[in-house]
Amino acid sequence: MLKIDTHAHWFPPEWVDLIAREGAANGAEVGKNEHGQVTMVAPGIRMKPSFKATYVDIPTRLKLMDEGRVDMHALSLTSPMVYWATPEFGLKLSRAFNDACAAAHLKPSRISVHNPRIIESRRTTSRSTMSRVTMSRSGLTLSPGRGR
Predict the structure, then answer these.
(1) What's the pLDDT tens digit per position in 71-91?
(2) Measuring CA to CA, which residue among 42, 34, 38, 44 is closest to residue 20?
């Protein structure tokens, strides 16, 4: 029988790098802990996450999955999410997360993305984009626009 962890949080490295580069300019307190891991405190977020390798690095995750005899992880973003950010930076973070989710499917038998998000502010989302978003049991789907 397959062992699937459907509640596996993940911060893509590209997402963490974006936080490290641009988070402070967008209202977050960004730093590093004694282990050299990026940390942040975002406006309105109580916790101070550190982005540990177990939550960032896919090879590290696969090793831990093997040790725990877990066959598959369904990955999802967790706090601090993107809601704290300005609409423009939230969109940038969302795109980084979504792009990394697509790349994570390089190990499709071991990694799945649970409820991939297209998180965009109403102020930055065009009507044509929103008309292409469909909600389903497996999450959000963005269909290609006309003429693409």
Answers:
(1) 998 888 888 888 888 889 988
(2) 38
